[in-house]
Design brief:
Low-confidence stretches: none
Mean pLDDT: 80
Largest sheet: none
Distance between the termini: 28 Å
Helix content: 55-70%
Order of helices and strands: HHHHH
Radius of gyration: 14 Å
Length: 108
Amino acid sequence: MVNADNNLYNEFLEIVEDLIYTPEFRKLDECSHHYGVSRMQHCINVAYYSFVVCKKLKLDYVAAARAGLLHDLFYYDWQGSGLGVAKHAFLHSSIALKNAEQLTELSP
């Protein structure tokens, strides 16, 4: 999990802090996700691990961190939505993309 004790945390935070503190992103803390964590914590974890892996592989770790943070930027409870797993899996990425485009400028 991501916390201030991780070695690269400060660098990671500099890259994503403009997004982490927005009301739109903070709202994800109200949404449950897998394995007993909020969707916000899940996105932070994905973003941090993507950042670390891409940094080690000399890939675009800035884009990876920001994309990881925004990949589940939707606000409905998918399990209670009536969409079903398959339809949710197909739709949620485009919903998250639209929300991310409204929140910040995205890299190609």
